[in-house]
Design brief:
The chain is an alpha+beta fold. Helices cover 25% and strands 36% of the residues. It contains 7 helices and 11 strands. An 11-stranded antiparallel sheet has the order 6-5-4-3-2-1-11-10-9-8-7. The radius of gyration is 19 Å and the shape is globular. The relative contact order is 0.21.
Length: 278
């Protein structure tokens, strides 16, 4: 079953914001002080706390983008939805790219993200339209950082718990929000050791299943330390024909505190039959 899920998951792969206004001298000096604090703080320790800051924020909306390049072909998978960081539950609508010939439209896939599990609707030939496919993310070689075509927002943040090296790049703006840009490298095994229970197993699987457990990243934090954007670069083994496959996964978080009601499927709504290869 794990092998079939890995193969079918591979088909998916082949695939309010705070505005700083400077009013008068006092306002400007406050901004300078904040920038100075960012420069003097230890970037590694700052990033180790990023996931906890999201949990304290409660929830947000999210947009995701996953770009994969292999054999001279590049595809992008996009998603959008909501995430509850305290319950570790999310809902995304994931849009797959057209076939290379542009002749086939793929139905959007609805994904429900939960600790240790991924639920997908409109996923897989032969699956009834009203049924969900469930995948145990700890059995996936990439821990579902890539397979679902979108990285779980909390898992994306928890990768930063494994930050080994990081530098403060500077302050910039993202969608009108003042953010601090950091760049560094995280170790997936270290991230797994410090992760929440729901992400510990999947991140440990990814540490073993990727071509390298070292993950370069760029992350942008707002003035409250919340992740507004994080981009990871993963590399996994694509087989003898494709070699290593490079994947860039980007997660954008906004509208913190937005309602994020996510209800997981009942047992009777989960498909248990064979999934045809698409």
């Amino acid at each position: 079953m794990a092998e079939r899920q890995r193969r079918t998951g591979g088909a998916v792969v082949v695939a309010g914001l705070m505005v700083s206004v400077c009013v008068g001298t006092a306002g400007c000096s406050g901004g300078d002080a904040a920038a100075g604090d960012a420069r003097s703080a230890d970037p590694v320790e700052t990033l180790h706390r990023a996931a906890d800051t999201l949990v304290a924020a409660g929830s947000s909306q999210a947009r995701t983008s996953m770009e994969m390049a292999t054999g001279g072909t590049r595809v992008t998978i996009r998603g959008e939805g909501v995430y509850d960081y305290r319950r570790q539950l999310g809902r995304l609508k994931v849009l797959l790219p057209q076939d290379p010939a542009g002749t086939r439209e793929h139905r959007p896939i609805t994904e429900l993200l939960a600790p240790g599990a991924l639920f997908m609707k409109n996923r897989g030939a032969g699956v009834p339209a009203d049924k969900w496919v469930r995948v145990d993310t700890a059995t996936l070689l990439d821990g579902n950082l890539v397979t679902g075509g979108a990285t779980d927002p909390l898992a994306a943040a928890e990768v930063l718990r494994g930050t080994r090296t990081a530098t403060y790049v500077g302050e910039t703006r993202l969608a009108g929000t003042a953010v601090r840009h950091y760049r560094g490298t995280a170790d997936l095994a270290k991230a797994a050791a410090g992760a929440s229970e729901g992400n510990r197993g999947p991140l440990a699987s990814a540490a073993k299943g990727f071509a390298s457990a070292e993950v370069p990243f760029d992350v942008y934090l707002d003035e409250q330390g919340r992740i507004r954007k994080v981009r990871h670069r993963f590399s996994f083994l694509g087989g003898a024909r494709n070699g290593n496959v490079a994947v860039a996964s980007t997660t954008l978080l906004y509208d913190f505190g937005a309602p994020a009601e996510v209800r997981l499927p009942a047992a009777g709504d989960i498909y248990t039959g064979r999934i045809a290869q698409e």
